[in-house]
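User: What would this chain look like folded?
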Amino acid sequence: MACRALFVFVALTIVTSLLVLPKARGNSEGDALSALRRSLSDPDNVLQSWDPNLVNPCTWFHITCNQDNHVTRVDLGNSNLSGHLVPDLGKLEHLQYLELYKNNIQGSIPAELGNLKSLISLDLYNNNISGTIPPSLGNLKSLVFLRLNDNNLSGPIPRALSSISTLKVVDVSDNNLCGPIPTTGPFEHIPLSNFENNPRLEGPELQGLAMYDTNCS
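Assistant: Here's the prediction, encoded as structure tokens.
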């Protein structure tokens, strides 16, 4: 009788473990990327390998992970994608490269991208992105490359970007930005050609002579 009870207990333990197993397979980074996939139209099936049922997204095409199986790169440039970005991308806390250039992505840049503290490169150029540049991008203290050119962005260039000491390349040309161009911090070394074709930009900020905040939206 005791043996039978032990057998039943072991069997129930195994069944319970099997029932719990799918929950253990959940992966927040995979969930974030799956949310991105659902928001995009993919006529060339570039995202076909993005199977949300896998333990993690490290085997997906166009995704690179580190040795701890955390996502460090999303490489989807020039992939004929359309749709919009999702706030869930802000959960990819180990992400270093977000490459989504030369697609037809619309909508705005989620403020949650400011949570990507490891981000080195944000390449969203040559899309159809609108709205403003989120000031939260000033939180990206590892950022080196910020290329947002050839979109439909409006509003000012956030002054918060001036505090990113690592920033080497900023290109916001060919948008509809307004207000003055920051001239402090990394902006001291950014060529004016990287701001051209923004008809409402007022030129470089004159420190001490002009207020930065203008009626710009």
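Confidence is low (pLDDT under 50) at residues 5-25. If you want, I can go into more detail on any region.
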